[in-house]
């Protein structure tokens, strides 16, 4: 389990009925925009799409097992944090922001968002407290490059450089990594990992 996070302050819970009411209002507003627009123009098409999106979100909210506290990966917590800052902590706008800004060409977590169960999980997190999943940390050895006792991956915190050495516990070096952190920070991670050159040894919590 991980750390409990609230984006709302106070008790961190937003009333589910209020979310449904706001979605219904959004659907009605988009319906009025359709009625007032000329079929085929941009405003008309966008309003039609909005109606579909809001109805889809309303259906998902109706299926949420509320008020269970969801546990989300760190990258989802990052999405929520950024969306909250861009959308004044309004859950419906935040969901729209995430849908618009998590792109399959720029975010390798896009597949996570394509999953229906994960969409429900995200919506639950947007309207309640949520917990951030604690990721497993590993000591990583690179095979076939250095002598066995000098093949431990380490990251120099000051210079932002990766290197190999023996086991070390010096503060300036990071030697425990999550796989997500390596994906985000080590440009050669995928190449080494796909080639089977990385050996992961799970590090127990201290």
TrEMBL record:
Alphabetical list of Pfam families matching this protein? DUF1642 (PF07852)
Q: Name the InterPro entries on file.
A: DUF1642 (IPR012865)
Its name, as the record gives it, is: DUF1642 domain-containing protein
Superkingdom of origin: Bacteria
